């Protein structure tokens, strides 16, 4: 039977070897490449976008503007 110390040493070597192999397989970011020229920022070209929605149900109660605010002073009953 293998000793506990030998098993732990073998496991440590395996983790190190797999870590080195994973690092070698990692693709470079475009900013990391040495021959990459700086790209110009162009309107409408982007990698991702975020749609952020928020809701504040107590805005009309706690707002210093109170009911004079256009969001809180609606007459149709829909106070957003």
UniProtKB/TrEMBL annotation:
InterPro entries: RNase_T2-like_sf. Residues 61-80 are annotated as: Disordered. GO terms for molecular function: ribonuclease T2 activity; RNA binding. Residues 66-80 have a biased composition (Basic and acidic residues). This is Uncharacterized protein. It comes from marine sediment metagenome. The lineage of its organism: unclassified sequences, metagenomes, ecological metagenomes.
């Amino acid at each position: 039977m293998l000793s506990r110390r030998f098993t732990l040493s073998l496991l440590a070597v395996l983790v190190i070897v797999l870590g080195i192999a994973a690092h070698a397989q990692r693709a470079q970011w475009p900013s990391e490449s040495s021959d990459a020229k700086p790209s110009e920022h162009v309107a409408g070209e982007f990698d991702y976008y975020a749609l952020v929605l928020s809701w504040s149900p107590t805005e009309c109660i706690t707002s210093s503007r109170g009911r004079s605010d256009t969001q809180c002073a609606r007459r149709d009953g829909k106070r957003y």
